[in-house]
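ARCHIVE CARD
Drawer: 12
Card no.: 0347
Subject: one protein chain, sequence and derived structure
Cross-reference: see card 0346
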Amino acid sequence: MKDHEELEEIRKRRNNVIIHGLVESTDANPEARQQQEEIELQNLLHEIKCDDVSITDAVRLGKRIESGDGKPRPVRLMVASEHQKDKILRSTKNLRGKKDKGYDSVFIHQDLTPNQRAHRKKLVQEMKARKSNGEENLMIVKGKIVVREKRDVMITSG
């Protein structure tokens, strides 16, 4: 029974991404906050060259802190298709080096179930331990730690 619930949860989350570090509006008016949120998301998607992605829903996760200090809450972004989600995840590399736009602390990842997050956390801990023991070029792919292939560049004269 648990496996069925987990699969259903994965299916529900398949078109979602989680965005951490996106500036949160401190406006007291909920409509103004929502409008500011939409503008921030449009700017972010434009920056990673995903202007053609259709957002079906965007929700801040967690309870809003009135004081406005502290880290911004994560955003769960639902898009129209799994293809669009994959496009966003592939394009997140375009955020690197965007300090001038305030995106240097923005991270986008797949919406994982609690079980998937726990499994990934164990893998990350194992990978850190292996790296501290001298192993190099490790990465997590499809739920496993693998050694990244070294790609040698061949220069040919012709």
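Annotation on reverse: Residues 18 and 76 are 5 Å apart (CA to CA). The mean pLDDT is 86.
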